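Dear support,

I submitted the protein below through the web form. The confirmation email said the job was done, but the results page showed an empty box. After a refresh the structure appeared. I'm attaching both so you can tell me whether what I see now is the final result or a partial one.
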Amino acid sequence: FQCYNFSMSVALTADLHLTTRAEHPARFQALEDILSQMLSSGVETLVIAGDLFDRDRRDVSEFESVVRRADFRGLQIVVLPGNHDASLAQSSFSAANVLVMDRPRLMVLEEGGLPFFFLPYKAGESAGARLVPFRGELKPDGWFLVSHGDYTSGPAAPNPHEPGVYMPLTRADIAAFQPVRAFLGHIHLPFQSERVISPGSPAAVDTSETGRRGFWVVDPLSDRLEQHFVQQGPVYMKEDFLIVPSPDEAVSLKTEIIHRVLGWGFTPEERQRVNLSASFTGCSADRSSLRAAVLEALGDIRLYPDGEPDFSNVLAEDDPALAAAAALALDKASAIVLNEPSALPSAAEINRAVLRLVYGAD
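What the results page shows now:
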């Protein structure tokens, strides 16, 4: 196999889905942020595990203008074709610092470190079947896998944006071939198991991709892993709030919002990048007090899409007898013990059912 003495550590990302900067500027911002963080950390190699581009017929010039910049041209960019850009080849690029893994290849990126096996996407096949011809080259616990497809036995569901299964890697494949780590693109959801890591998309492709976006850095000599977070572009979050009528409902709502926001664990700088999709349901004794409570609790956090809370699903209800009945029913519901919580309604769903029963509200 080939040896390229690129750098002591290797950064890994996937699923940038670049189109044009005018169409999706945040995706280019994420790429530039990753490259900038690499420079500040002394990391010289970036592996992109598929779907660098959103479409197979693409203009690579804007991408090349980034990686050719004076501050980035010393970095090596290793690109694996994914299902969106499966026809990528070395001939697609003129930039000298871009290397395309358009066929299965075992490569050492740091002399003395473990090799990386690059498995580009191929429609209609499984990752395990494509690894079989290379079994003799893949020493158990002696290599890293970089692939693009679903992890069918993993904690993440298949990519909701793309129905079907794409070049799946299974838990049985991991046990059979024993890579030290398998880095997978395609899934978009960041996750880490004992041996499988999905870096996730570094820039959300839409508002359903919530939470911090990031990338990983691995040291091929020691298998030391670090997760880094992208510091540019929007962060999408989604929260559902149930409003129960009471004299202090606005205070309770404000307190709950602050609690949720703190639970994200974001820095003040990260909170300023949040676009929050907030759903409000239930009943209110004083709907006029809710807007101010929400905006005060959120501070610099922007409500998506138009900056205003939507209370269209919150009914006006000021009957104290019904409010007392709802409070009692919710208190009783909170004491219910769920023996199989994964197969039963969540606490929020139970509380909504209680309000429907008391008020006839959704």
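Response: this is the final, complete result; the empty box was a page-load delay. The chain has a mean pLDDT of 90.
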